[in-house]
Amino acid sequence: MRPENYQSVSQPPSNEFELFYGPNHPGIEGNYALKVRVHGDEVTSARADGGYLHRGFEKLMEGRLWIQNIALVPRICVPDPVPMEVCYSLAVEELGGIEVPLRAQWIRVMQLELSRIAAHLFFFGGHAATTGMYTPMFWGITDRDLILDLFEELSGGRVYHIYNIPGGVRRDLPPGYLERVSKTLDYLESRLPDYDNLLFTNKVFVHRATGIGAMTQEQALEWGVTGPNLRATGLAFDVRRDDPYLVYDQLDFDIPVEAAGDAWARSLVRRSELKESLRILRQVVAKLPHIGGAIRAPIPNPLAWNLPAGDVYTRVESSKGELAYYVVSNGGDKPYRVHVRGPSAMHAVQVLEHLATGARIEDVAQIMFSLDACPPEVDR
Amino acid sequence: MSTLQSIPVVATKAEKPSGGTGNLLANVFDELTAFCRSRSLFMLHYCTGCGAIELPPAMTSRFDMERLGIQPMVTPRQADILLVTGYVSTKTLKRIILTYEQMNSPKYVIGICSCTVNGGMYWQSYATAKVLADYMPVDMYIAGCMPRPEAVISGLRELMANIRAGRSDNWRDYYRRYDHYLGNQQRLFGENWQTPTDVIGEARHYGQFGPETLGEHTALLERHQTPLLPFEMRLGLGGEKTGVENKGDKR
Ligand code: SF4
Question: Does this complex have an ipTM over 0.85?
Answer without folding.
Answer: no
